[in-house]
Amino acid sequence: MIHRKLLPLLLAALFSAPAAHASINLLAIGSLSGSFSDLSSQTAGMLENGIAGNVLGGLGSGLAYAGNNTFIATPDRGPNATPYNTLVDDTSSYIARFQTIRMGLSANTSGTGLAFNLTPTLVATTLLSSPTALTYGSGAGLNLGTGAPALNALNGTNYFTGRSDNFNPALTSANTANARFDPEGVRVSADGKSVFISDEYGPYVYQFDRATGARIKAFALPANLAVTTLSAQGAVEINGNTVGRVANKGMEGLAISPDGKTLVGIMQAPLEQDTKKNVRIVTIDIASGATHEYAYKLTTGSGVSEIVALNDHQFLVDERDGKGLGDGTSAVIKQLYKIDLTGATDVSGMKGDLSASAISKTLFLDVVGVLNANGITADKIPAKIEGLAFGSDVTVNGVLTHTLYVANDNDFVAGVAGDNKFYVFGVTDADLLNAGVSYTAQSISPVPEPQTWALMLTGLGLMGFSARRRRSGATIWSAK
């Protein structure tokens, strides 16, 4: 017999419970060809490997919502799939940058296909630089010239690049004067005026002016993430260290709390000193720089590529394997897990097997499963699903739906790994309730879009297709 005082609570739970058929759906798919150029016209010259310095490729290493239908996307350290010099792991002086993309999401009224159409448009390319001097490789003993990009001399600017020898061997990989930078995770600040980007070489987390690309802050990460013996060859660097991040598997993902006060970075793979498939999450208080570390244990994926905030304590983690389009195989593991940092154990002073302190996790979305259900075979699913960002809400069949954008990294080899893809998934409050979570969108103040900045500076004197903005030596190009 049900007590009369409990009856109202039970009835409320019954009628507020999510429908049993509630599920996360694929709403749209869009793409940008990786065979075209981005908007940084001054980088169009050939790199050391014979590839144009402004090739548009691999821009889904990180994806961030910037308000309305605007997103920021990060290519990683540049095209290094073309063999030319193993002494630098085939990396080049490709200038680090981020791309600004307008996502045109509109209802599909054709009666066939997905519920929405997605048309991504590249509207700006912003190069990343430092207002202070950077250390570049001399090229000595590598059969190469200096690692400084030619644009440095032309613009009087210190640009970050992907070339692996751009470091000071006398200091640790945490040296913020190193010119080598491998952008991965990206998020937009609460005021909309800057972006935070995490990297794999340091690992580093830098804050850049969104309008100019100039670095304005470097966060001090825990020393146990850095390596002390540096090399331009990743394999050599791995063999030379017992503590710190594994080469090319540094801070792969970056989230920001909805209030814009805390960054949450995640390593791609276990540190040299850690075991049992445990990777580290690092929280950073933006105002004070204070950090904490937590353990995340991989389930079936070989690494983590991204993390995105659901609210101030719950996050989605992108765990994946390396299989799929681009690898010549079929995708298997591309899964988003829900985690909660509430009450998590700080593992800052620990090493070895962190399993006992690892955060609990629950499967939230099987990306492969949903794409398969929509007729996309596993061999056509990108191997590197890496970018995650919530976008603007939409209405689907009368139900308010949150949009979750998922992007791939095609490693600058569109002919092998396909175009830059953007998948939009619809997540309802019923889906979130089923998963035991709630969603709070990040609050971002509106700022002028890149083409508006260019117009403000240059008036009506724009020439050709692109406009250039320079401040403190940094440069942004945007479409008219």
Automatic annotation (TrEMBL):
Keyword GTP-binding: no
Domain Phytase-like: 56-412
Domain Ice-binding protein C-terminal: 446-470
UniProt cross-references to SUPFAM superfamilies, sorted A to Z: 3-carboxy-cis,cis-mucoante lactonizing enzyme
Keywords from the named record: Signal
Record-linked Pfam families: PEP-CTERM, Phytase-like
Signal peptide: 1-22
InterPro entries: Ice-binding_C, Phytase-like_dom, WD40/YVTN_repeat-like_dom_sf
Name of the protein in its database record: PEP-CTERM protein-sorting domain-containing protein
Organism listed in the record: Actimicrobium antarcticum
